[in-house]
Design brief:
By secondary structure, this protein is an alpha/beta fold. It has 4 helices and 8 strands, in the order E-H-E-H-E-H-E-H-E-E-E-E. The protein has a 4-stranded parallel beta sheet, sandwiched between helices. A two-stranded antiparallel ribbon has the order 5-6. Strands 7-8 form a two-stranded antiparallel ribbon. 19% of the residues are buried.
């Protein structure tokens, strides 16, 4: 990341997928605020962004960084792996946002990945033991009015679909996924 100098001021965008649930989106805003507080002085411009489903999106966050004085933007994907959002969607959306701000530069950092800190966090969650223990078939309180044995609702951006009658997973037509040499 370029050092903040008089000619280059860096803005940071912490980007997640985005959710229809306000509480999930508010979590990213809290992450961005805590990151800005912890690294104040080195990262003065920090903005949250959701790749889709919620605002601010990447374009709004990019504009906010530039409006706060940033000339170089670093997008920090709040994703675990180098999936399609990291490989395709975030670069495309960031490129589109940058077009509106000639004279700026940007980078997209690696996702969180496999790291000892992630392993430590998983162990911390294991040790917390703060979630309910459920018996097979018992209703999970997170499901509210949904019986525990009902099939889950499929993500509408997933290239796969669940046949609710058979329980089989199939590739959605038009998804672009290649299986067995056949493009779907």
């Amino acid at each position: 990341m370029p050092m903040n100098t008089q000619s280059t001021k860096t803005g940071v965008i912490i980007c997640d997928h985005g959710s229809r649930r306000a509480q999930s989106n508010e979590s990213l805003e809290e992450v961005a605020r805590l990151f800005a507080d912890r690294f104040a002085g080195g990262c003065d411009i920090v903005e949250p962004a959701h790749m889709e489903l919620a605002m601010p999106d990447i374009a709004a966050a990019y504009a906010a960084c530039v409006n706060r004085g940033a000339t170089h933007i670093v997008v920090l994907p709040f994703f675990l792996a180098r999936g399609k959002h990291f490989m395709r969607d975030i670069p495309s959306l960031t490129s589109q946002a940058a077009v509106d701000f000639p004279g700026t530069t940007y980078q997209i950092a690696e996702p969180l990945g496999i790291d000892n800190l992630i392993l430590d966090l998983l162990k911390k969650r294991l040790d917390a033991n703060d979630q309910p223990v459920l018996a097979s078939g018992e209703a999970d309180p997170r499901l509210k009015d949904t019986p525990a044995t009902d099939k889950r609702i499929q993500c509408n951006t997933c290239p796969f679909e669940l046949n609710k009658e058979t329980g089989q997973v199939a590739i959605k037509p038009g998804s672009g996924v290649v299986a067995g040499g056949v493009r779907h």
